[in-house]
Amino acid sequence: MIKKALFIVLLLGSILDAENIDRFIGASQAQVGKTMTYNPEYVKLKFPNGDIPISKGVCTDVIVRAFRALNIDLQERIYRHKKANLKLYKGLYYTDKLDPHIDHRRVKNQQAYLTARGYRVKRGHKKVFKPGDIVVWKLPGSNLDHIGICTDRTNSQGEPLIVHNVGAGAKEEDVLREYHIVDHFRVFTK
Q: Where are the alpha helices (DSSP H) in 122-190?
């Protein structure tokens, strides 16, 4: 009886995880054609669940908006996590001051949060990227960080396309290996 109950719980968890991956990816893809510009301006946002207009954003906004489709507010979660764990965020940016208007819109803060939650794919593992994975890069010719989401669509080598915003609005493109990969997260286990 216990084995049967455990099997049902695991099966249900797997089904829910698959639904969440689909919603997460779908929410990232839904930004394509709506977020038309790259705009890193500082904006005072409501808290929680604050956002700039969907017509503009940066790479981190793609991630924030996709998580919101799962009723996960990174603005609030990162703010509260940073407040409780300042040392994990110390030195990532020019200021360590808490700011609910911008903290969730910074790549290194998203990295720190996702790492603390245990979502980092261990280095040394064969780098297989799955739909729903989050990838962080260093952009060429700069020290700028970039972040995007692996989708369920693939290139001719079977690697996922990426939804990201690197300067011209949200796009779904074959750019996984275009930039230097520095981090890799898997929030969904399926």
A: none
